[in-house]
Amino acid sequence: MNQSVLLSSLLSTLIQQFDPQSVLVAGESARLCLNDCQDTRSLALATPFEQAQLKQIHSVDLAVISDLTETLPLQAGQQWLGYLRNLHAPHIILIADPALAQKQGWQFHDYLAMGLHHIAGTSDGLQVFSYAIENYQPKRDWLNSRFWANPENYDKYRW
Of the ranges 5-9, 54-58, 119-123, 128-132, which one carries the lowest mean pLDDT score? Predict the structure, then answer.
């Protein structure tokens, strides 16, 4: 089976999981993998990636990105991806070629530092990462009023 077909089926499964109303497709590989999924809800960005591109788009439910880490140096790529993540897309799927990205200064831990989770890898070396705002910060047991405030003791004691 062709690698692009495998990647397309993986991406379609992830896209169904996020159930987006609008999709941003950025990069040639992402566009090729999602040719059959594109409709009027899709917005496309072409390479080369620039910060100014993001100022011209509206918020979307899902961004599928490829060729970012291979074409932008680490700091510029982190700024572009961070701007997209923080202002435009609560869900991101990133397709990366680590061998080419390493030439731009990207390491595996840089993806994790951006809040991305490693989903899968293909036999030709592509890696798929995912970001979902609802899974970014897990709920912690200690983060509640039982440990931080005691409203039943207000105005009872003076320290």
Answer: 5-9
Residues forming a β-bridge with 121: 127
Domains and CATH numbers, the chain: 3-135 (3.40.50.150)
- Distance separating alpha carbons of residues 33 and 50, to the nearest angstrom: 22
Cα Rg of the chain, angstroms: 19
Sheet holding 62-66, edge to edge: 42-45, 23-26, 62-66, 91-96, 127-132, 117-121
Distance (Å, rounded) from C-alpha 142 to C-alpha 157? 24
Global confidence as pTM: 0.79
CA distance 102 to 70: 8
Per-residue pLDDT tens over the stretch 132-145: 988 877 777 766 66
DSSP the chain: --HHHHHHHHHHHHHHHH--SSEEEESHHHHHHTTTT--TTEEEE-SSP-HHHHHTS---SEEEEESHHHHS-HHHHHHHHHHHHHHT-SEEEEEE-HHHHHHTT--HHHHHHTT-EEEEE-TTS-EEEEEEHHHHS---TTSSHHHH--GGGTTT---
Residue 23, amino acid: V
